[in-house]
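Summary of Year 1 activities. Much of the first year was spent building the evaluation harness for sequence design. The harness presents a backbone, in tokenized form, and records the residue chosen at every position. We chose the following record to illustrate the format because it has been used consistently in internal testing since the harness was completed.
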């Protein structure tokens, strides 16, 4: 029995970080998903997908559902899928919300199981990001004390101000994990400076 359970472990989608369908054909066109672990996903893709994912979950909760379901939240799920899928004819993923929402209805044609695994993939990516980087990315320490949180979009604007990746449009197009590395480095610099100041105070 234990061996059988081990063999069926792949069916648990709670930790899914590999796209089950790397390529999908919809409406006569071919689209590709981001790679495993969201390795080639852009900063804009992650933030926009996160927005639609939250709306999807909120809509499900508002419907007094115990867990999100496809039938009740189609609109938000269509937009989430539209963010993640890139037309193979184009080298770059979309970074325009109007375009994403304009084409979202096309993905209503996907089979239910295809939609489920795309949702599960992004849910798994979100959990992986939290598990690996929460101590740097999701704590208030180093927030500047403004009391205002604009989420990823606010962070992207702050990064654009540094000019490291260029304009905010360039930040949007940047690989998401490169943004994470930058934010971790900045957090470490901040904490090091904070420790240095505290040590100087203690010496006095």
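For this record, the design step produced the sequence shown next.
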């Amino acid at each position: 029995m234990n061996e059988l359970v081990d063999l069926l472990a792949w069916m648990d989608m709670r930790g899914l970080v590999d796209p089950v369908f790397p390529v999908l054909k919809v409406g006569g066109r071919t689209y590709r998903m981001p790679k495993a672990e969201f390795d080639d996903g852009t900063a804009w893709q992650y933030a926009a997908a996160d927005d639609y994912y939250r709306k999807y979950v909120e809509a499900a909760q508002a419907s007094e559902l115990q867990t999100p379901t496809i039938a009740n939240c189609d609109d938000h799920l269509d937009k989430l899928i539209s963010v993640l899928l890139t037309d193979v004819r184009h080298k770059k993923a979309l970074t325009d919300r109007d375009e994403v929402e304009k084409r979202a209805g096309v993905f209503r044609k996907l089979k239910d199981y295809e939609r489920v695994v795309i949702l599960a993939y992004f849910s798994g990516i979100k959990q992986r990001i939290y598990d690996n980087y929460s101590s740097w990315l999701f704590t208030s320490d180093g927030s500047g004390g403004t009391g205002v949180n604009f989420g990823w979009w606010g962070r992207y604007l702050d990064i654009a101000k540094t000019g490291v990746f260029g304009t905010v449009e360039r930040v949007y197009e940047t690989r998401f994990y490169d943004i994470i590395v930058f934010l971790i480095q900045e957090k470490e610099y901040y904490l090091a400076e904070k420790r240095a100041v505290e040590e100087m105070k203690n010496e006095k």
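Helices lie at 2-7, 43-62, 74-84, 97-103, 112-137, 151-162, 168-173, 176-203. Quantitative recovery figures across the full test set are reported in Table 2.
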